[in-house]
């Protein structure tokens, strides 16, 4: 029997632990509750609350900062106190935030509710993600298969939630935005109850460490910072679904209506193909090569639009390059995202996986913030249409070159606590 056959047979013999199944379902529920509300927030703030456009953008930016920017805080707290209290506290804050948002009619109330909603995710997301990564290493060590398969399943669950959530929210908006908020809060009430009942008080193998000194070690970890830079470049590229792609669709179709179909195409691809792609890559590619291949695919996606721009195609034909970009970006995402998350346990200091998982998101978020500002300037500078897309194509290529070399340590070694 081949090594691949033995690996597949072993993977069938080792099911996911109850804790892993709970955490994967957690990601599904988190995203259903979140995306039932947030996609409709900007319209609610502009039309129902009457905020100016700049203020709506400011509020949405605050939400992103209070979430992505503070992931490192939530991760450090998870290392110090364990994931159970941090996850439960995050659920309580999310319930309070959604409830408050549903009744908020003044700017200060909206800002307070949005900050609560963002900080809630900064608590529970890095706690859950770090424990999924740690448990994936345990599953791999027990012969279950490559850890990236667990992270891929986690990605699929999140994408499925992001697909179902807006559909649920759209139905609830027929009653009102407040109803959508209360329904989102209700989802997190169920998550809170489930975790209070099922999440263990202490998880074997997970030690609690002091917060002090962790940041200093992290900033000296050049290989981890290289991974952050590469992952940030990927997220910057992915963010073009919301920045460069709408502008291209507007040019080609005369409106942004086709965007919904392109977003649906991306979601369907992830849900249907993520696990097979991860399985295929895990059997053939080392982590660095998998991430590099994904980044190159993303670069090709940008190049497809850049090459087509001088032709100036419009209508249905003009949307073909945009669709090609979405497909290649999504395929690249399938190769990059699970591997990056699975790589972190090998680069993190002992006992600080939560801190490193949170830092991966926070550092990458800062890269996206800076890079998106530059991208916006390029798109508004009146340059030839191909130039911004060629510049964006160069970003993942550079990122592939700075990836750290190999994984740290023996994969059969004991997992990080």
UniProtKB/TrEMBL annotation:
Name of the protein this chain belongs to = MFS transporter
Q: What is its main location?
A: membrane
Record's bilayer topology term? Multi-pass membrane protein
Its keywords, alphabetically, are: Cell membrane, Membrane, Transmembrane, Transmembrane helix, Transport
Q: Where does the protein end up?
A: Cell membrane
Where does the source fall among the domains of life? Bacteria
**What are the leading ranks of the lineage?**
Bacteria, Bacillati, Actinomycetota, Actinomycetes, Kitasatosporales
Report the transmembrane regions from the record. 20-41, 47-65, 86-103, 109-129, 150-176, 182-200, 224-245, 257-278, 290-308, 320-341, 353-374, 386-404
Q: Which Pfam family name is an example for this entry?
A: MFS_1
Check the UniProt entry and state the signal peptide residues, or none. none
PANTHER family per UniProt = MULTIDRUG RESISTANCE PROTEIN MDTH, RESISTANCE PROTEIN MDTM, PUTATIVE-RELATED-RELATED
Species per Swiss-Prot/TrEMBL record: Streptomyces olivaceus
Give all residue intervals belonging to the Major facilitator superfamily (MFS) profile domain.
1-411
